[in-house]
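#struct-pred

JT: dropping the chains for the assembly here, can someone run the whole complex?
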Amino acid sequence: MNPILEATNLSKTFAGMRAVNDVHIELYTDRVTGIIGPNGAGKTTLVHLLTGHVQPDQGQIHFEGRDITRLSADQRVMGQVCRTFQVVDIFPRLTVFENIQIARITREAKNLRWFGGAAKEAREAVEAALEEVGMWGFRNRRAEQLSHGQQRRIDLAVTLATDPKLCFLDEPTSGVSPKERDQMLELIARLAEAKRTTFVLIEHDMEVIFNLCAHVICMHRGAILAEGTPDDIRANKEIKEIYLGEEV
Ligand SMILES: Nc1ncnc2c1ncn2[C@@H]1O[C@H](COP(=O)(O)OP(=O)(O)OP(=O)(O)O)[C@@H](O)[C@H]1O
Ligand SMILES: [Mg+2]
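RK: done, full complex below.
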């Protein structure tokens, strides 16, 4: 099987500091990949690079065999590489429905497909995304009226409404209550099981990663320190040392 995304020799320096250092990564559609690593390891920067939010200093990114290295984030969304952000990124004064609609309409407009049946198709995609994340009943609420966990689900629906093939989730449970966290994790597991999209999950909680991901990549100081199955990662001495004192 070919990887859906492959990046080679990827590097990014900020003010003389290598946030991502010569990374080679392959992502496959048949598994959820987890990215772990201590604060500042370069996880978010790597996702920024792969999704076009930051341009690399060096390296190539291929998606479904095509070179997307120089494509913008919007162009990548059209090519169906999407992500949610570490911090919730929705419009607080708009309704839940409008938040998701905007993402879909933006995609259609940029595709120059805002004609004919596209409007109906877009509405259906928004409705489907709302159903998928269990937020249909909240569609007319303003986003600001929702709990943080619900806003995170809207964030996910925004991404799903663009029909991603590959979807990066940057700490999707950070800052939410334990109950909402469990609901979010169940939701991700269900969507992954249904092959809705290929997820790549960044998380600090090892148990979450080990439960959800068949393949785990550990970053440290901008580089990939190790990768493998959850069992491989659990047994890795270097990783244990990095997380000194933490249960792995
Ligand atoms: N825009 C930026 N300008 C300058 N430095 C940056 C920028 N973005 C990230 N960095 C630096 O790059 C390094 C990697 O940061 P990054 O946010 O990718 O880490 P992370 O693994 O996502 O950490 P966390 O677990 O805290 O989210 C850090 O030292 C950070 O300070
Ligand atoms: Mg981060």
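JT: nice. The domain at 1-80+164-248 is CATH 3.40.50.300 (Rossmann fold). The pocket of magnesium ion (ligand 2) is lined by residues 43-44, 86 (CB under 6 Å).
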